[in-house]
Amino acid sequence: MTKNTVRPISPKISDAPRAQKRSRPVQVADQIKRWVVERDLRKGDKLPNEAAMITQFGVSKGTVREAMRILEAQGLIVTKTGPGGGSSVGEVSKDRAMSLLGNYFYFKDLSLSDIYQMRKMLEPELVAHLAGKLDAETLVTLREMAHRHPEPARSPEEEKQQHISSLAFHARIADAAENELLGFVISFMARILTDLTVYRRLYEAPNRELWERGRRHQIELVDALERGDGPLARAIMLSHMEGAESMMNAQEIRIAREFMVE
Amino acid sequence: MTKNTVRPISPKISDAPRAQKRSRPVQVADQIKRWVVERDLRKGDKLPNEAAMITQFGVSKGTVREAMRILEAQGLIVTKTGPGGGSSVGEVSKDRAMSLLGNYFYFKDLSLSDIYQMRKMLEPELVAHLAGKLDAETLVTLREMAHRHPEPARSPEEEKQQHISSLAFHARIADAAENELLGFVISFMARILTDLTVYRRLYEAPNRELWERGRRHQIELVDALERGDGPLARAIMLSHMEGAESMMNAQEIRIAREFMVE
DNA sequence: GGTCATAATTTATCATAATAAATTTGGAAA
DNA sequence: TTTCCAAATTTATTATGATAAATTATGACC
């Protein structure tokens, strides 16, 4: 059978009773969303300009503008000035989606072990599925990333940089996932971890053995991916996750108090 | 060690060069975000009122209002009229977070097998971890949900209703997850599947055996969860996932073209 | 003390005008 | 004809002020 593609839906955009409670800008924004969906507009397709919407919806300029800001904040439209300008549909970027989701978890106090529990479930399976399917360019990139830091860090700042590089390696693999949902979740976790401000305890010297094993894991993982050895890739990734988790746990997390922004 | 809690961060809210390009409402919204973060404001804490922000930021009323709409659209603030009203911090609701994330996937054409690949990775592990940890109330609720439909559906509409009930069962389990990230992702998938408009092929009679097995799975799963038999719970859930997947694949998906709304 | 009408407060919406940004157009120069 | 600069045009952006709507606070009254 053909590939069933799936889209979010909610049949009732405006409940008749609730319609009164929602502010007019929100109502207008919802109508525009419906308008986009009905016509199956895609990225780049233009919306009516400001003046047209004012007459179309019978509301004031300010109301229309607030509605557009709502849609813009969600990443659904982009707006330009000048002739041929106006608003047009703009598909939500991955970065923006991660920021918006990050706002949700800002209030949730995720723990490191929460994140690593998920990573251990997802990333080994991902690389198992990916083995033998990566194109040459991706493999070259991954190999380059794996070899980027030939020596252990000599300072906390350098160690943090290496940590971020390692997470970029994982995000790069996630980008190669055919399953966009899987790829997104893994990238999101990498982003959360990247945005953390992590400081090694001062009295704890960098652990050369742990570092060396992490590096070897990456290199062996790329090899396994290239050879198409899924089970090995999975095993390496799982081992790597466990190592990374214990390294993280050996460090102090300075709690980051910032909303994600794109 | 104490539980490391983790928060999203981005160190550079306003890049100096980009600051000029962003519209004033966006800049104001960012400043308010920073204001909230610096003071570590929490849900319910009040923001300055409109008039104060106008003087504070030296912009017009319209600009402030657009900024508030941006923050409101992201679920970060709520606004009320009247004395004692104004804007206050409001933590992003799960529903809103799912809607915003749904907007991202609206353009991505996820496939059913993408979703089920994820479900098979996550849900069996979740119930394995949850076995023996659920409180009595949750178990009662789950058992009630599992027994809700004692007979196979006699019409496509009834079948769809049963399908939605089944997904609510899974969402209820996800809500019990200690790991909020894991729970969110599972709930999100349940929501996507719930919002689908699914119609059984007309020439294909409801399959009583498949239905019966799905129902038995739910009941046995609750038993295993109560007894604390993690491995069995995992096995049941995996089998259930596979059954659900094949049932979904045996149906026609009317592609749902709608944005999620809260 | 409870209830109801009224006042006060705050956001919500509207209307209008001026400003700024971006693109197109027109014309002069090569 | 082509190139390039400047004016005109289109569109969003910002600003200001006035009015409406919603909510809470107040106080008179029973």
What is this entry, summarized?
2 copies of one chain form a homodimer. The first copy, chain A, has helices spanning 24-38, 50-57, 61-73, 94-106, 112-130, 136-146, 156-175, 180-195, 208-227, 230-249, and strands at 5-6, 77-80, 86-89, 110-111, 197-200, 251-254. By secondary structure, the first copy, chain A, is mainly α.
Shape, principal axes of CA atoms of chain A: elongated
Report the CATH C-level class of the largest domain in chain A: Mainly Alpha
Total number of domains of chain A: 2
How large a portion of the residues of chain A is in β-strands, by DSSP E?
Answer: 5-15%
Radius of gyration of chain A: 23 Å
The H-level CATH homologous superfamily of the largest domain in chain A, spelled out, is GntR ligand-binding domain-like
- How far the N terminus sits from the C terminus of chain A, by CA atoms, comes to 39 Å
Task: Write down the oligomeric state.
Answer: homodimer
Low-pLDDT residue spans of chain A: 7-19
Q: What kind of sheet is the major sheet of chain A? A: 2 strands, antiparallel
Q: Specify the structural class of chain A.
A: mainly alpha
Describe the protein.
Two copies of one chain form a homodimer. Chain A is mainly α and 262 residues long. Chain A folds into two domains: 18-89, Winged helix-like DNA-binding domain superfamily/Winged helix DNA-binding domain (Arc Repressor Mutant, subunit A, Orthogonal Bundle); 95-254, Four Helix Bundle (Hemerythrin (Met), subunit A). In chain A, 59% of the residues lie in helices and 8% in strands. Chain A is built from ten helices and six strands. A two-stranded antiparallel ribbon of chain A has the order 2-3. Chain A has a two-stranded antiparallel ribbon with strand order 5-6. In chain A, helix 1 crosses helix 3. Chain A is elongated and about 70 Å long. At the A-B interface, strand 1, helix 1, helix 3, helix 4 and strand 4 of A face strand 1, helix 1, helix 3, helix 4 and strand 4 of B. Chain A binds a DNA duplex (30 and 30 nucleotides) through residues 23-25, 49-51, 59-63, 65, 68, 79-87. Chains A, B: This is HTH-type transcriptional regulator LutR. Chains A, B: InterPro entries: GntR_C (IPR011711), TF_FadR/GntR_C (IPR008920), Tscrpt_reg_HTH_GntR (IPR000524), WH-like_DNA-bd_sf (IPR036388), WH_DNA-bd_sf (IPR036390).
